[in-house]
Design brief:
By secondary structure, this protein is mainly alpha-helical. It has eight helices and six strands, in the order ββββαααβααβααα. The protein is elongated. It starts with 5 loop residues before the first strand and ends with a helix. The C terminus is likely disordered.
Length: 205
């Protein structure tokens, strides 16, 4: 039986198989003079002795990667991909891409609605009031109850109903522009009492 080739680590003075050494094209043997375990230990010891210098080099490399055009685009692409995954998981937890009122299935037109109409207060409690942060909140809390999927139009209609004191529990949305739609909008205008009050009310959804 052919014996496996061995090499001696100059640090621990132990003969080990060649697979225990990293490659080194500048070495006559084409392998490092330290085994992998000793190389890892030496690297850790060097970092401990020169921690400030190593950290500064790492920050410089990170800044260079972040500011380069290709690297910046890669970072943005990874962020967009992570947001898409987080969004898809959140919608899947609440029944998928389908409005529970009108059945709309357009992903770009769907939103996750606060059933109890406390969305503004909830968003104010988050560190960043953006959609990604909201989806992360839902995930970290195991997708709690109190949320539903609505399309943008049904969400607006539900908000109008809530602010005029009408019930909002699954009320079907009339066609936008229809007499029923105009009736609820007119009731909203009367209740709010003017354009400025309407704009202030709409900002509180």
């Amino acid at each position: 039986m052919k014996q496996a080739a061995l090499a001696r680590c100059y640090r621990c003075k132990t003969d080990k198989p060649l697979s225990e050494f990293n490659s080194d094209k500048n070495s006559p043997r084409r392998i490092s003079n330290k085994c992998k375990s000793c190389a890892c230990l030496a690297s850790r010891e060097y970092h401990d002795r020169n921690r400030a210098q190593c950290n500064e080099k790492a920050r410089t490399r990170y800044a260079a990667r972040k500011t380069g055009p290709k690297e910046a685009e890669c970072i943005r692409e990874r962020g967009r991909a992570a947001h898409a995954r987080t969004k898809a998981s959140a919608f899947a937890a609440y029944g998928g891409y389908k409005c529970v009122w009108c059945g709309c299935r357009d992903p770009d037109n769907l939103q996750i609605d606060h059933i109890n109409n406390d969305g503004k207060r909830h968003r104010a409690s988050l560190s960043h009031a953006d959609r990604t942060q909201f989806y992360r909140y839902l995930k970290s809390h195991q997708y709690p109850s109190g949320y539903q999927v609505l399309c943008r139009q049904c969400n607006i209609y539900k908000d109008l109903l809530f602010k005029t004191g009408a019930p909002t529990d699954g009320v079907p949305r009339p066609e936008i522009g229809s007499p029923a739609w105009r009736q609820i909008v007119e009731a909203f205008v009367v209740k709010m009492g003017g354009r400025e009050a309407i704009l202030n009310a709409l900002s509180q959804d």
